[in-house]
User: What shape does this take?
Amino acid sequence: MSLIDADKCRPDPDEIAPRSPQTGARPSLPPHNRRQRLSVVILCIAPIAAVALYLGGLRSVDLDDHLMLEYQPEVDLRTGRILGLEALVRWNHPVLGQLQPLEFIEVAESTNLAGELGAWVLDTACTQLGQWKRDFRELDLVMSVNVSPVQLVSLDFDVYVKQVLEQYGLLGSELCLEITENVVVGDLQRTRSTLAKLERLGVRIAIDDFGTGYSSLGHLKSLPVDTLKIDKVFVQNLDRSEGDRVIIDSIVGLAASFGLDVVAEGVESVGAVSYLLDVGCVRAQGFLMSKPKGSEEIERLLEVGALALPWNVDSNDARRTFPGDVAR
Ligand code: C2E
Ligand code: MG
Ligand code: MG
Assistant: This one.
């Protein structure tokens, strides 16, 4: 992934210095146009350089001062009950403002900071879950944490996970590590061995963004995976895309055949909810139910234990009513 769309950054040369209609040649740039080109280049490079430089700076400072986690609830679409939370990292940059993970995770990986960043995320998410377990004893929450490829293939990753679980009094089954399909195809031997050790700890494993990567069914079968998380690109337009409905059907069917749980990401419309319930996918995350939120806001939701849903489901799930629902 690149931080910036290079095509958008590249100035149109004809806009800066139009060709002569007679000769077709482009005149040398007048000084003010050279300045214009330079500022476009600087504008494009500055954020990348700033991120890279600042990440370098992160090595020497306390990550607590710069990083924060937001949490997005995973809910049961039939009841609104909060089943778990996904920890999503944000970086409060003093100059660039709050950066989203896709703007810095890749740079972190290329500067070997992914290990430290990943350890901070795991530690912070597990501390938080330990706290919420004490505060909301009646809830049965699972914390999902995204794991980078670098972490997964690092030696002793399972030892670190075990230590964190023990430190915060968590059961392995209360932690779900999310890996992407492409990790699975990267170093299959090492991945299989690490996942097997995590499985012995009782930790759950989910394949994130399922449907967009390259893992083969053979790999899937050979790995101790518990859950498929359907990528949001297939869910966001479910109410109007026949193609996406076919893909959802296939993934839900695949999950059922392998005995895996399935979670839909990116639920943004009641039409999508309606279709997911029809095919038996009851677990989901999405802006329709809740965007990722900071700890304090999440606590207010945990006090209730369920989200107020913008649709009604009766007890036997036979008569769902969706305000403004599209025809199913
Ligand atoms: P992901 O793990 O698939 O997380 C879901 C992303 O989808 C989040 O974006 C979330 O805000 C967004 N999302 C959730 N529901 C909806 C929806 O209804 N509509 C739309 N349009 N988006 C929705 P976010 O927080 O920007 O994270 C992006 C990705 O960055 C994550 O995708 C994950 O791959 C990565 N990431 C986030 N936190 C971490 C981390 O701590 N470690 C690592 N290695 N990667 C992380
Ligand atoms: Mg995820
Ligand atoms: Mg995802």
